[in-house]
């Protein structure tokens, strides 16, 4: 069965490993067919569901809907809108198979992050260093951000550079993780410490 593999980011003829049907006792023509498949390329599992469709006096199976992996990226609503827009564009590049453009867009997102955090320096390398020095990001995130900067530079300036869909996915995941940590988890953690401090002071 041809389905989109969200790991390989292409349509593949997936190998079926099992299926079962959930009937609707009230509507014998309705029901759902679940299929457990394997991507022939990356060997990762895929789960789909199909509804039978009745037309031309015959029952046909409808277009399979992907249940796993959904391939959806979760963008935290606490991430500022400009950065979320930039991430959404990066995701569109990735989904469209534009891997080099994904790397460039992710670098642009990191640049936007520096700018929103008011750490504009002469160049992105300096800005990222400042993010670490001012405690906005920790050492681990600094290393990630710095790698994203270098990969973005390579994507933008080296015509011979090539990026696979796995590279693009990783670049995107790291970019989302940096913003997620900075806008969501860090705030959550700071609030938590503050709350505990108030409780202990009572
Ligand atoms: Zn695959």
Short summary of the structure?
This protein has five helices and eight strands.
Proportion of helical residues: 40-55%
Q: Quick one: how many beta strands?
A: 8
Order of strands, main sheet, comes to 3-4-5-8
* Architecture (CATH level 2) name of the largest domain: Up-down Bundle
Small-molecule binders here are: zinc ion
Notes on the protein architecture:
This protein is α+β, with helices and mostly antiparallel strands and 202 residues long. It has two domains: 2-68, no CATH class; 81-199, Up-down Bundle (Four Helix Bundle (Hemerythrin (Met), subunit A)), CATH 1.20.120. Helix content is 49%, strand content 21%. It has five helices and eight strands; from the N terminus they run E-E-E-E-E-E-E-E-H-H-H-H-H. The protein has helices spanning 81-95, 99-116, 124-133, 139-157, 165-201; strands at residues 2-5, 10-13, 15-23, 31-38, 45-50, 52-55, 58-61, 65-68. The strands form three sheets. Strands 3-4-5-8 form a four-stranded antiparallel β-sheet, with no helix packed on it. Strands 1-2 form a two-stranded antiparallel sheet. Strand 3 (15-23) and strand 4 form a beta hairpin. Helix 2 crosses helix 4. The longest helix is centred in the last third of the chain and has 37 residues, at 165-201. The chain is extended. Residues 5, 7-8, 12, 39, 41-42, 44 line the site of zinc ion (ZN).
